[in-house]
Amino acid sequence: MEFPPASSHRAPTTVRRNPPRRAKQTPLAAAPDPSSLSSAVDGITPFPLDEILQPDPPQIPPPVPKSPEPQSADSSENLKNKNKSSCLAVNDSHSVTLSAQPSLLDLKRTKSEVYDGFSFVFPQDSLQQEVYDKVMNPLVLDFMGGKNALLVAMGPTGSGKTHTMFGCPRDPGMLPLALRQIFSHATGSGDPYSSSSYYLSMFEIYSERGKGERILDLSPNGIDLSLQQSTIKGHQEVMISNLAEAESLVTCGMLKRATAATNSNYQSSRSQCIINIRAARKSVDDEQHFPPNNAVLTIADLAGAERERKTGNQGARLLESNFINNTSMVFGLCLRSLLEHQKNPKKPLHKHFKNSLLTRYLKYYLEGKKHMTLILNLFRGREDYADTSFLLRQASPYMKIK
Ligand SMILES: Nc1ncnc2c1ncn2[C@@H]1O[C@H](COP(=O)(O)OP(=O)(O)OP(=O)(O)O)[C@@H](O)[C@H]1O
């Protein structure tokens, strides 16, 4: 979902639905397949996030190759059964229908709501590259053209936000694909981009045992940071000269990021993670057509809202949940207020952003002063109806009851 600056007229939105949730995973599982760790894409340095994100990965069925389904006699029957077990259906590339389970008293009536106006809706078998081409590529081009850009992933815990943003070597996500694009331009001879220097910084916002929010630099030797107005103070910016350096830094940062096993996700993010890539373009000579600037590409992987009943969280995990849920709620309120304001400028923008560090940091985006794109990761199982409905209401530009 795109939230253009107030001055722009770009159409809103993006939804990415996730694959059906797998059965509860166990942290005790087989060792990673070494062949998967060494797999590289076309001579590009492998991005070892598999090792980081899945130190003890559960047995995961191999991804189903994307191929047209054979038209068998029972395929329409299968489809019907599938639809019965899911609450969300893709209508077209811009809208979805959410259906509540018919009530026991009135089995004939199924309440349906159509959520419309998304920039793109991706079916569950979409490839990362497809999402990248539609969602991330325009942001990277903006960034390389000197504009700031922000991509945020939001959705419930375990819905695939980290997977979408970071991916794995066989299936790289938005960040590694963006880095590849940036450095493939940067090394092009005679290319204006080759006169840019790139800097990477990475930090997380988290709350340890409910003791208030903290910001931690995820760079090597990173320390506690502070936020003044909407600016982070004291963080390290590391110059990145090539893809390998950038990937290595992100890998180190991800190793430091707070994660923990819950019943919903055996490696659940416990913090809001933000990565900034800054381009400092040098003005080479008077002929230079591109003025010096400091465009920043920001990627935010939010910790997913979670229900105590599902995660089984207790103690420290539960206190973290409260922080995560509070931040998700504040972020959602900011989004809703921005959407309402963009639809009808007479509606005031509420100052919800003041209520969490994350939203204070993203204030200018949440006030519509800078361009933001949102990826909404959703579950579609019947049992996920309440969460999915809540998120769609927060993030959808238009909704009508059928
Ligand atoms: N599209 C996908 N293809 C393959 N695996 C996926 C996909 N989406 C998610 N997964 C897997 O599902 C699990 C949960 O995903 P992930 O950790 O990305 O969720 P999350 O939304 O970031 O959760 P949390 O908010 O708890 O951090 C991971 O093991 C991930 O590899």
TrEMBL record:
Q: Does the keyword Nucleotide-binding apply?
A: yes
Q: Which residues form the Kinesin motor domain?
A: 65-401
**One Pfam match:** Kinesin
Q: Name one GO cellular component term.
A: kinesin complex
Q: What biological process terms from GO does the record include?
A: microtubule-based movement
- Point to the regions of Low complexity compositional bias: 27-40, 69-78
Could you name the domain of life of the organism this protein comes from?
A: Eukaryota
- Report what the protein is called: LOW QUALITY PROTEIN: kinesin-like protein KIN-6
Which keywords belong to this entry?
Answer: ATP-binding, Microtubule, Motor protein, Nucleotide-binding
**Per its UniProt record, what SMART domains does this chain match?**
KISc
Cited Gene3D superfamilies = Kinesin motor domain
- Residue ranges annotated as compositionally biased, kind Pro residues, are 55-68
- Ligand binding (ATP): 155-162
- Return the annotated region ranges for Disordered: 1-88
GO MF assignments: ATP binding; ATP hydrolysis activity; microtubule binding; microtubule motor activity
Task: Please state which protein family the record places this protein in.
Answer: Belongs to the TRAFAC class myosin-kinesin ATPase superfamily. Kinesin family.
